[in-house]
């Protein structure tokens, strides 16, 4: 990969995200960790757009449900976040595994899946509600 501003942004986002996650799990919430987390988020957003641009140039198209449900997932994701965390805490304690890593890696996929499922069901049975709440 050539050394371009896009490549630099992607590498910076990756390094900042990994460092931020490591410090967050190791030390908890501190001012410096929060500042690093904020900075990594600011760099991560353009990098997601860059990855999308690269994938579209290679002919890959996004999955339709992911595109149409994105705002709903953004608005709704806080609600289903609590139960999976409690459930995984019980499992990791029973297995005697460090739960911070498991929660950090698994919970986003569970929450996203639940949100897309709720979106799909609401869109199927109450399409006017989805159109009203998402503005589509």
Fold and architecture overview:
- The protein is an all-alpha fold.
- 82% of the residues lie in helices and 0% in strands.
- The chain has helices at 5-27, 31-57, 64-68, 70-76, 82-95, 99-125, 127-134.
Structure described in brief:
The chain has helices spanning 5-27, 31-57, 64-68, 70-76, 82-95, 99-125, 127-134. The protein has 136 residues and is mostly helical.
Q: What keywords describe this structure?
A:
mainly alpha, 7 helices, 136 residues, globular
Task: Give the helix/strand layout.
Blueprint: H1 5-27, H2 31-57, H3 64-68, H4 70-76, H5 82-95, H6 99-125, H7 127-134
Helix pairs in contact: 1-2, 4-6, 5-6, 6-7
Structural class, by secondary structure, is mainly alpha
Output the number of helix runs: 7
Beta content comes to under 5%
- Helix percent reads over 70%
Shape: globular
Radius of gyration: 18 Å
Distance between the termini: 38 Å
Oligomer: single chain
Mean pLDDT: 77
